[in-house]
Specification:
By secondary structure, this protein is of the alpha/beta class. The protein has helices at 13-24, 62-71, 105-115, 120-141, 154-159, 169-173, 180-185, 205-214, 224-236, 279-286, 297-302, 334-342, 388-405, 424-430, 476-492, and strands at 5-9, 28-33, 44-47, 50-53, 82-84, 89-92, 98-101, 217-219, 240-243, 247-253, 256-262, 267-269, 272-275, 308-316, 326-329, 353-357, 371-379, 416-422, 463-465.
């Protein structure tokens, strides 16, 4: 195998994973990261003595990451301390109706019957049918897609009858459950891809199955440790990680990526360039328009994007020991809420939201007797035209009120010692997320598989993509899958 010099733009989880794999395979890999730390939206956020995850807080499909470490001769537990979360999460439909989800089938069946009598039979069918669907679909998403021919490969054709392509995610759950709240309990995972479960393709029912089959994990110190572990392993393999070095432009000559131009004006050549930045941001900021036909500014603007999020990071001088680690609080009209944010409508509908109370699992994130509260409120992306400069403080107050009244964090406001807010405007302007769409391009069927930006970039040669904006999808496990797909494409040449 010929040794190549490879430049990776961005030290997010996908960029670090592909750098680790390619360095282990004998290539010379240089990672350029704009920020002073690695991780991207998977990095830690430090507020005085409190530590938060900036973005993802759920870890599932651990074997995907274990496989990346195993290929390089490493064991994941040597780099991270994982803890299984049980209950996985609290689902609060109102003040008196709360379901504690677990991946123990017997306990989960009993919990369902407690709140939804005689519905556990649907759960049994869900586990059986979705297990088969998972076994058929996952081998397909581990493949690259670059042409229509890829859709007629044998394993894809065998999986097609199980893909629920003519049904929505909510429609699939209708085969298992009658009660609308129970359907929501198994479709809220559509928030991981920033979509409404009434619009998300039915194939995404495997997201819920993945959690109920393999469970959800926390990493001691926060999920930010995932990227730190990848960076450590990559450095051990010889990867050159250069933080505080922003890429201004991908250098293209003769329809081939030749290297990058940095923000200081210097140029670095390479045999291949891998883009791990937010896809649409990278297209509009790093690749001159003359090199983009399929992804011109006008065509990018017409694509569908996920919702955004309003974030609250609170360091408090109290521990809510009775509140579980993960909490999902549903508003009185969940369907209208997700419809509104999916249609980029302004604020109005009573929010549904998520918050993490990590102190009940991990005491390392805050001083003794203190804790961290991470709260995520899905909102429309910046196509909505919401003026977050004027709405920020008003929405913050509303969010705190809801955390107290519906989330069960009684008296929260008086215990706040430090805090940070991130609005959709901040995601776009400070974190380089196109339209503030935190879950990247939408995951409609029209933007999946060959219709999603390819891992081997289509516009010119020797350029590759990794991360949530390419195949397979957003979310940590699929981002790690994209890293392996891209590494294999480069290895095969």
């Amino acid at each position: 195998m010929k040794k190549k010099k490879i430049i990776v733009i961005g030290a997010g989880p996908g960029g670090l994973a592909v750098a680790l794999l390619l360095s282990h395979r004998g290539h010379e890999v240089v990672v350029y990261e704009k920020k002073p730390v690695v991780g991207g939206r998977n990095a830690a956020l430090h507020l005085e003595e409190y530590t938060f995850d900036t973005g993802p807080t759920f870890l599932s499909m651990v074997p995907v990451l274990e496989g990346i470490f195993a290929e390089t001769g490493r064991k994941l537990p040597d780099y991270l301390e994982l803890q299984k979360i049980d209950p996985m999460y609290r689902l609060a439909f109102d003040r008196h109706r709360q379901l504690l989800a677990t991946n123990d089938p017997e306990k989960m069946a009993a919990e369902i019957d407690r709140l939804f009598p005689s519905h556990s039979a649907g759960y049994t069918r869900f586990l059986r049918r979705e297990a088969k669907k998972y076994r058929k679909l996952v081998p397909c998403i581990e493949l690259p897609y670059s042409s229509v021919r890829d859709l007629i490969r044998p394993r894809v054709l065998r999986a097609l009858p199980h893909a629920s392509i003519f049904s929505s995610l909510m429609g699939v759950m209708g085969h298992y459950y009658r009660h609308p709240d129970l359907k929501i309990a198994f479709t809220f995972q559509a928030k991981y891809i920033g979509m409404s479960p009434w619009q998300a393709p039915g194939l995404f029912s495997i997201l819920s199955y993945i959690e109920h089959d393999g469970g959800i994990y926390h990493v001691q110190g926060g999920l930010n440790q995932l990227s730190l572990a990848l960076a450590r392993a990559a450095l051990e393999e010889g990867t050159d990680i250069r933080t505080g070095r922003a890429v201004r432009e991908v250098i293209v000559r003769d329809r081939t990526a030749r290297g990058v131009k940095l923000s200081d004006g210097s140029k670095e050549t390479a045999d291949a360039v891998i883009i791990n930045a937010d896809f649409a941001h990278a297209m509009t900021r790093m690749i001159p328009p003359r090199h983009r036909k399929k992804y011109s500014d006008e065509k990018l603007a017409r694509k569908k994007y996920s919702c955004s999020t309003f974030m609250l990071y609170l360091g408090i001088d109290k521990i809510y020991r009775e509140i579980p680690h993960h909490n999902l609080i549903f508003g009185p009209d969940y369907r209208r809420f997700v419809r509104d944010i999916s249609r980029d409508l302004p604020l109005g509908t009573e929010p549904s939201f998520y918050f993490q109370n990590a102190a009940v699992t991990d005491s390392t994130l805050a001083p003794e007797g203190h804790s961290t509260i991470y709260a995520l409120f899905p909102v429309s992306n910046n196509r909505s035209g919401i003026d977050w400069e004027s709405q920020r403080d008003r929405f913050r107050q509303k969010a705190l009120d809801l955390l107290e009244s519906r989330g069960g964090l009684t008296g929260l406001k008086k215990h706040i010692r430090v805090e940070k807010v991130i609005t959709p405007r901040d995601w776009e302007q400070q974190h380089d997320v196109y339209l503030g769409a935190t879950f990247n391009l939408g995951h409609q069927l029209s933007q999946m598989l060959i219709f999603r930006p390819h891992n081997r970039f289509e516009e010119f040669a020797n350029c590759y993509l990794v991360g949530g904006g390419t195949h397979p999808a957003s979310g940590l496990p699929t981002i790690y899958m994209s890293a392996r797909i891209t590494a294999d494409l480069i290895t095969r040449g």
